[in-house]
Amino acid sequence: EGVQPQEYTLIKMEVLPPFPAKLEPLGGKKIFLAAATLRPETMYGQTNAWLLPDGKYGAFEINETDIFILTERAALNLAYQNFSRFPQKPCCLLALTGYELIGLHLKSPLSFNKIIYALPMLTILTDKGAGIVTSVPSDAPDDYMALHDLRTKPALRAKYGVKDEWVPFEIVPIINIPEFGDKAAGKVCLDLKIKSQNEKEKLAEAKRLTSLRIYRGNNDCWRI
Ligand code: A2H
């Protein structure tokens, strides 16, 4: 099998004040966390963003007005698609760690909650997408379990300095899949008795089950 490019949709989530001291040098421009997704139609159900605490990120100048926070690798890929201040050259204004970004207040265009927060997910790969993930716990098993871990493990919240009020209170249902209901990820994770975000194999099966979709011709469900 040859290597094929993977096409993602990039979701821009605007960083809102209060800005952490670390981001102050960037003042004046719009700053976004940028997340890569295969499921842009689920953005109505987004409840937070995920990043890797130990991940290396940068604030990259994209054009006159916008700065994107993502991995260097993603910035390079964007630079080759005309998304960089300088053609084919990422322009990094500031190096950042995921840890420094936890708790950022974000505004996402379609999300039900006006403000959502950047939270830690420990299974993020920094060589995929943007290294930042938009969280849709209604439909994405990884997101559901990472949220479950944060909600049920005070020690995990303490380790990463996550305030209780940053953890989304409710899952926002958006798609009804007849066999699984409108919180398909949670239902499948429960059925498979998945205990944490680290259960890689079971989560792969949960993702397989929740992505077997057929288009039903009404707004209940798309199963493709
Ligand atoms: B998907 P593929 Cl609702 N590390 O978006 C880990 N996971 C990452 C990532 C990274 N660096 N970058 C993107 N992803 C996630 C929405 C979604 C996604 C739903 C349901 C399933 C689903 C909301 N999260 O993905 O390896 C992102 O999560 C199921 C696989 O390129 C992205 O789409 O196939 C998906 O993985 C890209 O995975």
Plain-language structure description:
The chain is α+β, with helices and mostly antiparallel strands and about 220 residues long. The chain has one domain: Isoleucyl-tRNA Synthetase, domain 2 (Alpha-Beta Complex), CATH 3.90.740.10. The chain has six helices and nine strands; from the N terminus they run E-E-E-E-E-H-E-H-E-E-E-H-H-H-H. It has a nine-stranded mixed sheet. The two termini are about 25 Å apart. Ligand A2H binds near residues 36, 131, 135 and 143.
Features:
nine-stranded mixed sheet; ligase; binds ligand A2H; nucleotide-binding; protein biosynthesis; Isoleucyl-tRNA Synthetase, domain 2; 224 residues; aminoacyl-trna synthetase; alpha+beta
The CATH architecture name reads: Alpha-Beta Complex
- What is the CATH C-level name? Alpha Beta
- Which sequence of strands runs across the widest sheet? 6-4-5-2-1-7-8-3-9
Indicate the CATH topology: Isoleucyl-tRNA Synthetase, domain 2
**Largest beta sheet, briefly?**
9 strands, mixed
Number of self-contained structural domains: 1
Portion of residues within helices: 10-25%
In DSSP terms (H or I, runs of 4 or more residues), the helix count works out at: 6
Low-confidence stretches: 214-218
The strand count comes to: 9
Keywords: Aminoacyl-tRNA synthetase, ATP-binding, Ligase, Nucleotide-binding, Protein biosynthesis
Protein name: Leucine--tRNA ligase
Family: Belongs to the class-I aminoacyl-tRNA synthetase family.
